[in-house]
């Protein structure tokens, strides 16, 4: 499990776990650090995607379904042991939803809360970057720079830039295999859902997330662009809100 999951602060006596899913091209460094912001009652796991960090030699995932099944399989024992919540940003939101759906369908498990950031509801048609030439490195770099969030030094060195472009391309390819038809399942979840979005980010269709649960759905817009969550003040808001939701869950 250590290869796929980053856990900077183990809390064996925690009441619940928060499983974090990074964005396309992202690693575990930022979200794994969230463990220092929570009390010992919350153990924070961050999912490490193939093709980076300690999984740099692992082949990239082929599609969203196989990726979700791998994560669910590795985490299953921990998720059966105590309550859990998911937090995902952008690509991580879609992946966390896919994992949650697989857990519900196959094992009857579901998170007590889904925290989803910068992501359209999966029932809404959306375009990722259909017009992007998948072999055009410069176009991918331009897109990355438009979104922000990637340290400039990673795009200045040719060796690092090549790795960033390849990783983002592979994650986008996985994202384009993701599909969900609500007609197949009526209100798949009963948990609460919270949706976050940056005020200067692309407009995301968030309202339809409430169609996917019989629980409550809430929406928050925070100042900033696609990577608004990297701003310290926004990060504090996210942590406080997640903490409050966990406390109110009555675990």
Continuous helix count: 7
Query: Distance between termini?
Result: 25 Å
Name of the CATH homologous superfamily: Alpha/Beta hydrolase fold, catalytic domain
The helix fraction, in percent, is 25-40%
Q: Please give the domain count.
A: 1
- Side by side, the strands of the main sheet go 1-3-2-4-5-6-7
How would you characterize the largest beta sheet? 7 strands, mixed
What is the third-level CATH name, the topology? Rossmann fold
Order of helices and strands: EEHEHEHEHHHEEH
* CATH hierarchy class name: Alpha Beta
Given helix and strand content, the structural type is alpha/beta
Descriptive key words:
alpha/beta; 7 strands; 251 residues; 7-stranded mixed sheet; Rossmann fold
Fold topology:
Elements: E1 5-6, E2 16-21, H1 29-32, E3 42-47, H2 64-81, E4 84-89, H3 91-107, E5 113-117, H4 137-147, H5 152-156, H6 158-175, E6 192-198, E7 217-222, H7 232-248
Parallel strand pairs: 2-3, 2-4, 4-5, 5-6, 6-7
Antiparallel strand pairs: 1-3
